[in-house]
Design goal:
Shape of chain A: globular
Strand content of chain A: 5-15%
Largest interface: A-B, 65 and 63 residues
Structural class of chain A: alpha+beta
Mean pLDDT of chain A: 89
Oligomer: homodimer
Largest sheet of chain A: 3 strands, antiparallel
Chain lengths: 114, 114
């Protein structure tokens, strides 16, 4: 509190982080969500394929994240007719448009975390 | 479990998400971390300035995140001599190199979440 009060006094109004950036990073950065989105950039995937693509993620969490990403309009769930019925997940236009951002982040990871 | 077993049988080995991408998104996407990094892309900031830049984040969490980002080598803490002693935070080369990724994510946020 002291640090805050003192900096406010010194610097006046500090620049706010862009709220749209902040919303974007909190959405995409939620645990497992980025990895799921990244797996889907290659094309539609079934549930089990996503489980394999992201090691360590439980089925329960994958279901939950897919529902959240559907609600946010990033992922689309398609039920293919036939027996057995098949369900696949793909990126919407909004989700696919994340590709440059995810690509840059992957490039950074390969430069600095490899 | 059924879905998983069935997809494994159908598709064989699914492509794994790049582990460096995954590590990057889990690092940068951790709650508040992206916003703190984004605030620092404008230049060095004091603790109180960061508090103001990211509304809703407690001092306790900001301290914790700054320590984590220091440990990961993304943020540098500088103590400026003088009375009172002043502490500022800035991006390291590794942290600054996130700028294209954060920029793309912000652009996406402004396109789709604004």
């Amino acid at each position: 509190m002291t640090a805050e009060a003192s900096a406010q006094g010194e610097s006046g109004a500090a620049e706010r982080v862009c709220p749209h950036f902040h919303a974007a990073i909190e959405l995409v950065g939620k645990r497992w969500s980025g990895a799921i989105l990244s797996a889907l950039t290659e094309g539609p995937r079934r549930f089990g394929e996503l489980t394999q693509a992201v090691p360590g993620m439980s089925d329960r969490l994958l279901s939950q994240r897919l529902r959240e990403l559907e609600e946010e309009g990033l992922v689309e769930r398609t039920v293919e007719a036939g027996a057995p019925v098949r369900v696949s997940y793909s990126l919407t236009e909004k989700g696919a448009d994340l590709s440059p951002a995810l690509g840059e982040l992957g490039a950074w990871g390969r430069r600095w975390l490899a």
